[in-house]
Amino acid sequence: MKRILACALLALAFTPAAAQEKSPFADYQRMTAEGSPVELFELGGEELWKKKQGPNSASLERCDLGQGPGVLKGAYAALPRYFKDVDRVMDLETRLLHCMTTLQGRSAAEAAKRVYGNADSPSEMEYLSAYIAAQSRGTKIAPGRSHPKELAAYELGRKLFFHRAGAWDFSCASCHGEDDKRIRMSELPVLSKPEFARPVMATWPAYRVSNSQFKTMQWRINDCYRQMRMPEPVFGSEATVAMNMFLTATAQGETYRGPGTKR
Amino acid sequence: MMQKRRGLLHAAGALLLAGLLKPMAALAAWNKAAFSSKTSAEALKSLGTPSAEASGGILIEAPQIAENGAVVPIEVTSNIPGTTSIVVLVEKNPYPLVAKFEFSEGALPFVKINAKMGETSDVRVIAAAGGKHYQATKEIKVTIGGCGG
Amino acid sequence: MAGPMKMRATLAGGYTDVRVLMTHPMTTEQQTKGQPHFIQNLTVKVNGKTVIEGEISQAVSRNPVFSFRLKGGAKGDQIEVSWLDNKGDTNKTETAVA
């Protein structure tokens, strides 16, 4: 507890409201984004989207991500959202899993067996997320906010954001709940506030230069729970989708510009 | 005679397979001595450029602070007329020499690379032009972000 | 065997801007306990003629991205970038200037 607190509070209030003043990493972030391997993941995702797989020997090209079967333009920016065919709210990865099972005939166990890859071997989800997210570049973030289940997901996500639990009695807000905080040199954006959620959600999923891996939102949420020393969330669970909904909704209106490149 | 030739071919093939004898396409110059040097001075000596005068004609564009040392973007432009090569070194890396580029007619003396930096260090760039060598340096601070995630 | 490679070459003001992305582990001696695996040579060609030759080290980042600038240039010029690593693996990519 002491170590994580020390780590979390190893902050000097270095700038007022990060959104207003230039971050010391602005040049770094700009220059790494301008020459990033991200496009290679987009290419890999495009191949997988079109690849015939599973017992049905079908591609994902008829997958409905919310804009109609096979429509990719703007689809990522409009997720998470409610899907009538499954009567639940889904984010990109849960919806992809759904399409892998229904269109391709694959078992959920097989399709979800390796959702997080590594530098030598990215996962299908990672490649697909890169490709699909790229098709939303320039579109305003607008997850579903009208269906009762969409509203419920938002509420659940918001509650989870502030809910303290686990061995260290942490919540997301423990690190992402106070202005002008950082861990070592990384800024900790207050994700419950639109001005801070916007630039974050506009650039995930992202290529992480520190480990040369492409990471998705399901991974990001999973890894935050790990860092908070909480039990591992189930991939695509109601809780993770709700968290994604809360963060995305808090960022709504921002022009999506990912996939991003991050440290 | 045929037997000997076949024997030789077999031997060459075996060596090829063993990776000991590389096909012609794989043979290319790579200055092992310079790239194995543990100091900038040694590397530059191995490159045949022990001295270089400071010059404002070499522009190094790089972030003041890198959020992670695994990928540090460095962009180099040489405005010195007749520049034929650019060498990039990271002084404090275990092996300072990072890259060397030779430019022929048809290429501008410009390059952007992503380098690994083990710690805060000066980046030194050497440009060769008209038989002389010039240099410029820029410090890049390297930090580690995050809490292990 | 080598991972995907992609390149874009576009006409800018008086020169051609080339950005090339490569897939390569670029592992160091430190990381591999003495068995590094990294690209050593790069060659940039315009319409078959070599214009840039690069020698690089294990200190270049994983999945390298390089930017080069070529003098002048015209739509349709064929740009080729190839690499060779310390294990003899190679890869290359071509694109036309847009």
Q: Percent helix among the residues of chain B?
A: 10-25%
The CATH homologous superfamily of the largest domain in chain B is named: SoxY domain
Order of helices and strands of chain B: HHHEEEEEEEEE
**How many helical stretches of chain A?**
11
Choose one word for the global shape of chain A.
globular
Question: How far apart, in Å, are the first and last alpha carbons of chain A?
Answer: 25 Å
CATH hierarchy class name of chain A: Mainly Alpha
Radius of gyration of chain A, in Å, reads 18 Å
| Main sheet characteristics of chain A | 3 strands, mixed
Structural class of the helices, strands and pairings of chain A? mainly alpha
**Can you write the helix and strand succession of chain A as a string?**
HHHEEHHHHHEEHEEHHE
CATH architecture of the largest domain in chain B: Sandwich
Q: Return the average pLDDT of chain B rounded to an integer.
A: 87
Name the beta content range of chain B.
35-45%
Give the key terms.
heterotrimer, A: 263 residues, Cytochrome Bc1 Complex, Chain D, domain 2, two-stranded antiparallel sheet, 41% helix, globular, B: 149 residues, alpha+beta, Immunoglobulin-like, 2 domains, six-stranded mixed beta sheet, three-stranded antiparallel beta sheet, 3 helices, 9 strands, 19% helix
Write up this protein.
The complex is a heterotrimer of chains A (263), B (149) and C (98). With 263 residues, chain A is mainly alpha-helical. Chain A contains eleven helices and seven strands. In chain A, helix 3 crosses helix 6 (124-134). Chain B is α+β, with helices and mostly antiparallel strands and 149 residues long. Chain B is built from three helices and nine strands. In chain B, strands 1, 3, 5, 6, 8 and 9 form a six-stranded mixed sheet that branches. Chain B has a three-stranded antiparallel sheet with strand order 2-4-7, with no helix packed on it. In chain B, a hairpin with a 2-residue loop joins strand 8 and strand 9 (132-142). Chain C has one helix at residues 29-32; strands at 5-11, 15-22, 39-46, 49-56, 65-71, 78-85, 90-96. The termini of chain C are far apart. The model of chain C has no long low-confidence stretch (mean pLDDT 96). Chain C is elongated, with a radius of gyration of 14 Å. Chain C has a single domain (5-96), classed as Immunoglobulins (Immunoglobulin-like, Sandwich), CATH 2.60.40. At the B-C interface, strand 6 and strand 7 of B face strand 3, strand 4 and strand 5 of C. Strand 7 of chain B pairs antiparallel with strand 5 of chain C.
